[in-house]
Amino acid sequence: xxxxxxxxxxxxxxxxxxxxxxxxxxxxxxxxxxxxxxxxxxxxxxxxxxxxxxxxxxxxxxxxxxxxxxxxxxxxxxxxxxxxxxxxxxxxxxxxxxxxxxxxxxxxxxxxxxxxxxxxxxxxxxxxxxxxxxxxxxxxxxxxxxxxxxxxxxxxxxxxxxxxxxxxxxxxxxxxxxxxxxxxxxxxxxxxxxxxxxxxxxxxxxxxxxxxxxxxxxxxxxxxxxxxxxxxxxxxxxxxxxxxxxxxxxxxxxxxxxxxxxxxxxxxxxxxxxxxxxxxxxxxxxxxxxxxxxxxxxxxxxxxxxxxxxxxxxxxxx
Length: 318
Description:
Layout: E1 3-5, E2 14-16, H1 20-48, H2 53-57, H3 62-66, H4 70-95, H5 100-103, H6 112-125, H7 129-136, H8 146-167, H9 172-206, H10 209-223, H11 230-247, H12 250-270, H13 276-282, H14 288-308
Antiparallel strand pairs: 1-2
Helix pairs in contact: 1-4, 1-9, 4-8, 4-9, 6-11, 6-12, 6-14, 7-11, 9-10, 9-12, 10-11, 11-12
């Protein structure tokens, strides 16, 4: 593999440009590295939380063991979920001998106008997650399988319980640690892996950024294992994907993702007393006519940026 200049671009940047077969191999390498990192750091996080290796191997419920210690719980979740995404994305770049800054889009947006419009696009889109969540609730999983429906509800309850447990007391230190571990680090990790590595490598596989954004959004919503919220998560992933596409910078989606997470944390601390279900119910309070107006504005802004942006992410794979 070698680095070649993009003769079609006025930029002086260099990109690693493997063929499609290499792009597929990079995808497989990335998945393998992530699985390896997830296993290693989950064990490391559990041991850091005071759980022995023997207990871990016996299948002890780590979250249940440390749910009374919010800070320890936050650290464990970071080790088991966010850190593997960060390490895997960076490791893959080095393994395939790509420049991490270019490969993972770790550069500033090239144009302030498109950056600003992309951020506006994201935040006009976020209120639509409420109606989409309500639409998602209409899916009757019990019609497929009662066992599946029960498992999904139990999974959702477990996730919500863990999220509420991380809130802890309502001190300033607790709030700031939640902003770090529940807002910033997950935003950085997920955007680095999904919009940095995965969207880029799928663009190389399919040679079409729209397909790459779509498939990345599907994987993003699936890997969270929260199928009762799959539709709004899929939509949000699409929005983040296009924000990166239009600005050639992952920092666009990191910022948007971080602010979205911070608003959720702030809501839990100051408006719903840590009740996650109540926080979700607040998202469904937007009147139907407001949702329709927002949807029209989102579509119009999408068409405008898509048609006029001159800083779209290049296809790194030829």
